[in-house]
Amino acid sequence: MSTTLAALPSVTLERLRRCPALELVTPGDPDFDEARMAWNRAHEHYPLAVAIPTSVEGVVEVVDTAREAGLSVAIQATGHAPTRTADGAILLDISRLRDVRIDTAAWRATVGGGAKWQAVLDAALPHGLAPLLGSTPDVGVVGYLLGGGVGWLLRRYGTAADVVRRFELVTADGRIVEASPEEDPELFWALRGAGAGHLGVVTEVEFELFPVTELYAGNLFYPASMAVEVMRRWRDWVPDVPESLTSSVVLMNYPPFEQVPAEVRGQSFAIVRGAHVGATEEAERLLAYWREWRPPLLDRFGTMPFGRIAEVSQDPTDPLPGVSTGLWLRGLSDGTIDQLVATTIPAGGPPRFIFSEVKHTARERPGAPGSVSALTQAGATMMLELVALTPTPADQAAVHAVTAHLRQAIAADLTGRLYLNFLEGEERRSGVEAAIGPEALQRLASVKARLDPGHRFDHGLDVLR
Length: 465
Ligand SMILES: Cc1cc2nc3c(=O)[nH]c(=O)nc-3n(C[C@H](O)[C@H](O)[C@H](O)COP(=O)(O)OP(=O)(O)OC[C@H]3O[C@@H](n4cnc5c(N)ncnc54)[C@H](O)[C@@H]3O)c2cc1C
Hints:
This protein has helices spanning about 10-20, 30-35, 55-70, 115-125, 140-145, 155, 185-195, 225-235, 280-290, 310-315, 335-345, 370-375, 395-410, 425-430, 430-435, 440-450, and strands at about 20-25, 50-55, 75, 90-95, 100-105, 110, 165-170, 175-180, 200-210, 215-225, 245-255, 270-275, 300-305, 320-330, 355-360, 380-390, 415-420. By secondary structure, the protein is α+β, with helices and mostly antiparallel strands. It folds into three domains: about 5-95, Uridine Diphospho-n-acetylenolpyruvylglucosamine Reductase, domain 2 (2-Layer Sandwich); about 100-210, Uridine Diphospho-n-acetylenolpyruvylglucosamine Reductase, domain 3 (2-Layer Sandwich); about 215-435, Vanillyl-alcohol Oxidase, Chain A, domain 3. A hairpin with a 5-residue loop joins strand 7 (about 165-170) and strand 8. Helix 8 (about 225-235) packs across helix 11. The model has no long low-confidence stretch (mean pLDDT about 95). The chain binds flavin-adenine dinucleotide. Flavin-adenine dinucleotide (FAD) binds next to strand 3, helix 5 and strand 9. Flavin-adenine dinucleotide binds near residues 136 and 150.
């Protein structure tokens, strides 16, 4: 470890060590380096201690102890989206609160604040029910919901935040409170789309499940040389595609890593990707638009059980250092397509980005009224996600510079709103206003001022400074 760490005051240390409802890992402990890591290795926490509660009582004890010691608390489930690192703070690792209960009659799941989506899949699928997870079951349920949650059932059922019914939260003053349409609706509004890490510790969430057991899903791979053609054809196609299909077009540079399947390793493609819920005949009729046009190099679209949904995007599960951005689009002009292709698959140079993906997000009912998540989508029909691997700070800076340039070049197609879930680090921390707009920020700031005036939770989204 390269940094000298400050220590917890001894009275604080003793109090936390005595609590039976948590495990404490401090500098010098053999597992400290592992405990303080985030999944996204571009960000490194140097906390005073890592506290790992095993129950809600443990969470309350961490928050109370931190408050009395004048320390801030950084909340982490997996570290897929670190915001401000936990330096000089207590890192509250919520991952042990991972119980999942399924109400098969009401089609609901009640999930602990640190569970990953895979645990929900495992519990719900045997009952013929599916959650609105995103591209990977490896991210935290709550972290994903708090940023909105755009997955492969988006056009059919909405964002994951749209279908939350209730949160349980430990507040900065150590109370256990509920947020629902009946109980503190302002907090409920804020948590559904702009709640990550700054309002309190979510210890439980209840949300709806859907009767989906099978998808027609996957990828059609076209050569990178056809990228412009494929993107234009996709753009012209999606306005007429029913809500049973959520699709995207991806410009992909597969890295030359062993973990990448040999048939695509080290190569670039233009990919039509998606998932359809409903009759196979309808899905095949929709896909004929592509298959009858030009046969793809690889056709990996077909029927699959819902439990294999991770195969659609094939996201990495091993920790990586990365930078990502999410931008809502009102359209996809020829000019924007040219810019995306030139930036993602540059002629004659190594690519900066692993991929850029434009997802079709237009819906007849755009979001549950009364959630922040609905607000961020205002005026958008699509979303652009950019992802780069950034092993060094210099790589991060270079990617940020290319992204800034690209954003200027495609400004006419941007709604101006960011998608918080696809941001990390400083852009995520300071990006709240750009994500939700100035009026909603005021509203969010008054929730923050009421619940956490002392900035106990000062490592998530930044709404008051
Ligand atoms: C490979 C990959 C694929 C992804 N795919 C999608 C996708 O398809 N759709 C989509 O919408 N997003 C997607 N995301 C984004 C992902 O949803 C966000 O990164 C999300 O915030 C991750 O949550 P986490 O808990 O796993 O990460 P963490 O870094 O642990 O948490 C993220 C944020 O949420 C806060 N938080 C976590 N748990 C709690 C809690 N219990 N109480 C209070 N605050 C909490 C943390 O403080 C932090 O600010 C993807 C990200 C990655 C890396």
